Each structure stands twice: as structure tokens, then as C-alpha cells.
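Its record is retained below.
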Amino acid sequence: MGVEDRDKLVEHPTFLEHIRFFFDTIDIDHMGVRGFDLATYDGVKSNAIQIHAQTKSGKMPKEPERRWPANRVKTFKNWIFDKFPMGVDRAKVSYLIATLSPAAAPPARRDATNLAQAEIDRLALAFKTIMDRAPDHPQSYFALADIHWFPAPVNCLHHEERYNPWHRIFIDRFEKALQSVTGCEDITLPYWDIVKEPPKWFFQPPFDSYVLPIDAAPEYPAGLKTERYSAKAIFKNILAEDVPATIRDALDAPKFERFTELIEQAHDDGHVSCGPTMRTPDIAAFDPIFWFFHCNWERLWWAWQKRMHATTLAAFRQTLENADTDWLDTPPFNELKPFQETADQAIDATQYLYEDAAQHLFSTVARVESGNIVADRAFRLHRKSRLSVRVKDIARLRIRGSFRVHLVANGKTVAQHAFFQGTEPHRCPSCVTREKVSVDLRVDRSAVAGKRLEVRIEALSVEGKDRWIPLSEVGSPSINVRELLTVE
């Protein structure tokens, strides 16, 4: 269901599938200043009786042409009678492929493993051309990669709500640079589906590496060549980090805050799986694999938006759980420096199309696992109990570079996740606003029951000299263990 059919009578509506489409942007803005939050589930639920009374009487909306017809009022009343179900998208995901007419459809971004040799050759031409441009050329490879971290200033946004919008604009900029090459005007950036082994052509020039033409920073001088692991080693690492499972959990999350938390966890694990250059945001974007890697995260956000019917700004607002949306629509909190676009301008997903919408990673029904839910929600316990182990309040500014958190049972790692950050986090404006972070580890109870458990933190050096960090060095983080429930 969407805006176009919101006036059909529904006997058992849910918020995600039906109710969130009942309110236009004008309603949300108009009532927001009066203390009625129509942009979130909690806001609509808490004001449902008043909303029903006002819409049934015809007092709201004020414009006669926008007043609710009887079917919409009755559907809303049915939602109240059913005790405000949040709901999920119970449709199969076949609708995810865009239904735009051929004339209107944007060109699809392709799966890198499906490219023909002629397409790879043309992409190589585009990459080689922008790599050969002078570093100060605004559409040179160096100038675009340096936006991510080094050279200073640090711009990129990680581990916060603007992560997805910022990187969407970043990937668009790089794609436009490729399209600026003569003969490549209609080219699109392919994506690397990270649940597959990277294709062989990633390890052939010019995609295999990049040499810095000038200094990026004192520790990254001119002449430095990017490095990464072999295709088989990368894929082995991705499976060890359990990236596919984390992606599935993210795509099943009905709320954006949970989706972005999980998808960035998978992103962090993917980064450190790829090799020395990709381990740190310092110079990660200089490794050519970065662009195919990040195009995939844009694809997954697009797929999630499609599934949750959140491809427009108004619909996207309905997936937000927190009432504080300054990051989305309030200057300067919604800025995506150094880009001119703001977070709200990066939400529209209708302008994108991908060759595959990641159906193989979607559950038939979207649900989310949690260790803490409100009492009025139905839930289910797993037959095979799953645990969430949260390592809380890690003082991340005391760690130079990315790190990995391990859950160890009888001396053996049974769960692990990485945290992706620069070697100078204190210079990152986004990092310093979140001095302490938490990392969630999920594990089957059978893997830990009766065993001696401990948490370890491993600093991941760019030079490959990893080391274990005493927890006392990072603020003595605490541990919280919960049994996971499936929200119905």
C-alpha cells in the first residue's frame, strides 16, 4: 500500500503498511508545532483518539479537498481497535524491482560479477582517466578519494544517522566523475555484492591498486601504493565476521535507526576484511575496491527503502523511531560537508535503480530481534536461544584506528565485530561527539553455556601489527547480556 491507495478500507491495518501513509508533509508540519507528532509511530499512537475524532468530524485537515473519506477514517478506527499494530511488510519482495517505464527508468547500477569484458574495459578507461588527472582537478581520483578522510579536513560521517545520506552523495559524485570521461557518459558504477567473492577483474589494473601522486598525510606520502588481501582471503574474512547475517538482520529491521546501526556494523566488518588500506578511513577511499564496496551499501539502503515503502522523504519519516530529527531537516545539523546537499535531500530513492534488489537476503516477513521491547508488543522466544552481548562505553578516542571486539569462550573467539575509525579519531568532528561507543555481539547460547567467557579488544594496525588492548585502557567498558526476542 502507498499514498495512492490509502483510501481503501482495510479491516486489520498496520502502521508500516497503511497508517503512516495517511499523513502528508503539510499535516506533519502543521500539527508538529501544536505538539502532535504525526511523523512517528509513537506520536500517532499516543494521539490516535484525538486524530480519529478530528478526522471523523471533518475538522482536520482544514482544507475541504483534503479531508479524510469514510474509508480512511474507518481504517484508522480499525487500527485503534486492533491495539495499534506496528506491522511489517508481509508481501514477497518481488515488487522491489522498480516498475518505472523504460523511458523514465534511471540506468541500473550493475552487479560487478555480471559485467561483460567490453563493460569492464570501458569502466577501466573511466577509472584510468580520472586516476591520471592532476590531484587538484575537482573530478580527479585523488580529489574525490581525499573527501573521505585524509588529506585534512576530515569530512566523512560514520556511526551516526547521517552515515547513509553522506555516502549516497559521495558515491553519486564519484559516478559523475566517471561519466565525465569521453565515451563514458552513460556509465554507472557497479556494486560488489559483498556476500559473494569479489570478481577477478578487481585484481587487474587499474582496479587492483592506486599510487598516491602527492602526500595525503605525513604517514601517507606520495608514492604509497594501496594494498589489499586476495579475493579468497577477503571472502573468508567476510564469512568469519558474519557479514551476511548482519546484513539480513538490518534488512529485516522496520525502523531506520536499527537498520542503519546494523548495516553500518556489516560495513565496518566488511572494511577490515578487505586489507590494510581498507582497514582505516584514513585512506580507504584510495583503494579502488572501496567504490564497488560502497556502491553495494547504497544498494542495500535503497533495497531497504523499497521494502519499507520509504523511498520519498515523507514516507521515510514514518520509519523514524526517534522524535529528534534535527540530523535530517534542521540546519546546520543536517549538513553533509563538503557537499551542498543536506541529509533530507539525500533520502529520495526513486532516482536509483540496481540490477538486483537483494531479495536473497530478505526474510519473507520483516521482523527484528531485540533484548528489550515495550510491553504491549507481541514477541516470540527462539527455540534455540540467541543472546545479545553488548560491550558498552568503549572509550574509542583512546584507540588509534579501527578495532575488533571479541567474545571469547574457553579461549576461543565465538563472536566478533569490528569498529571502523581513523587513526586520529580526536580530529574527527563526528567522532568526538560520540566519545564512548558500544558494540553488540550475537551468539547462540549453546556456544557459550557453561564456558568461561571474556571480552577482548584488538587494535587493528594499518601495518598489520595488531595487538590486544587491556580493557582498562579504553575506559573499563561494561557488559550487558540479554536473550533475544523476536518482535511480532
